[in-house]
Amino acid sequence: MRQLGWGLGILLGGLLAGLLTMPEWLPGVIHRQAQHWAEETHHRLEIGSLKVEIFPFRVQVHGVRLYEADGQTLVLGLEDLEASLALHSGLRLLPVIDELTLTHPVVHLVRNPAGEWNLASLAGPSSGGGFPFIVEKVRILRGEGSVWDQGSDTHHDIRNLQFHLPQLFSRLRDKDSWLSPSLHAEVDGASLDLKARIRPFSSELRGEGDLSVQGLDLAPWIPSCSVSPGALTTHFAFWGPNWGALQRELSGLRLSVPQIKGRVAGLEILLQDVQLSAPSVRYDGGAVNFGVIHLMGHDGQIRPVGVSEAAFPPLPLSKLEGTVEKLAWPVSVRTPLPLWLALQVGAQGRLQIAGPVDLRAQGAHLTVHAQHLDLRPVQPWLARYAQVRLESGQLSLEGVLDGSFSSPQVWQVR
User: Fold this and answer.
1) What are the pLDDT digits (tens) for 190-240?
2) For the stretch 107-119, what's the b/e string if a residue is b when 16 or more beta carbons lie within 10 angstroms of its beta carbon?
3) Is 357 part of a structural domain of the chain?
4) Once rounded to an integer, what is the mean pLDDT over residues 1-18?
5) Structural domain tally of the chain?
6) How many CB atoms lie within 10 A of CB 364?
């Protein structure tokens, strides 16, 4: 019995000594394991410092740099990492981390033409195992990075990333609970805010949230126009059996643009305070289906291309309203697009255009209805062809407009 007591005492003493000296030996163990992992994945790892405290248990890591095999190309960087273990972890029989904070992480993502990401090799094969854990709070401060798709040669720059997650748990902990992340970042100069709810471990993935983007650069989408940076807001939802087979839907999509100026179908158009909205947008099989799009603009002007302002002064547009139905992106040329457009010209004039736009033939068959159009602005243009002077007058008409966008001279009015 005395020998058993001595044995237990030596064992407990050894455990206590190991626990008390953990700050001296544990950082070395972690550092060696991290270096071994980096060598297996063909990367070079640098760690500035690693500190472990016992009461309370806290790990602090400073100056982490992960490079490609060449030793020069930075893949991941981290200024500081701090994690503290909750005192009630023993009572819950699983690791509970009070707070995990990553300060100034840097990530450079690259996808090659074959569709493979440069970080794919870091994860390694999944064994399907793991262990349950809980992190009460996750924070990312001052993150930054870049994304380069070599196949399409597109670059995206990410700055000032702020991320907050109230609670993170493993798959083995709870399969039906929701994660609620929030994120702010500057992406290509635009300010992005996102709040979401995600159920990632259930038999069916589900998620929803709200997205807001300020200062959105629309110039790549409308190359023929000069467009002021816009603002976009929408609610989103997705669901499906796995991440590779998700159905996605946007609702309440709204895009606001202070000003659009450019050329459309042989006309120079200026619009202020442009509002574009879509009640529902669905992503199906690589195509984005908008259903119906509503357009509204104010305080603009319109005039023909190639005619000087002295010969044809711009017509004032007090208000523009439009609707396009059955629009999909990429745009299908097989199905004509139903178009409805109403313009308030001047104080009383109204011009309404409706009909199908045939993208395959690059033409349209439109019904035109005009009421109370003031003719005085076209007086300088009429003077080039006849000795006509309009002191005052209004025009009302109905007709059919046929023509081709590729050849403006073949438009006909009946």
Assistant:
1) 999 999 999 887 778 899 999 999 999 888 777 777 888 999 999 999 998
2) bbebbeeeeeeeb
3) no
4) 46
5) 1
6) 21
Residues 6+ apart with CB under 8 A from 180: 165, 166, 167, 195, 196, 197, 198
DSSP assignments along 330-384, one per residue? SPPSSSPEEEEEEEEETTTEEEEEEEEEETTTTEEEEEEEEEEEE-GGGHHHHTT
Please provide the distance, in angstroms rounded to a whole number, between the alpha carbons at the two ends of the chain: 113
Residue 250 falls within a domain, yes or no? no
Residue 173 included in any domain: yes
- Flag whether 68 is in a domain: yes
Could you give the 3-state DSSP secondary structure of residue 278? Answer: strand
- Segment (H or E) for 37: helix 22-40
Computed over every residue of the chain, the mean pLDDT equals: 76
pTM over 0.85: no
Determine contact, residues 229/190, Cβ cutoff 8 Å. Answer: yes
Q: How many CB atoms lie within 10 A of CB 121?
A: 12
Residue written as tokens 């045939």? 358
Q: What is the mean pLDDT of residues 273-292?
A: 82
Identify the domain containing residue 67 by its residue range: 28-121+132-200
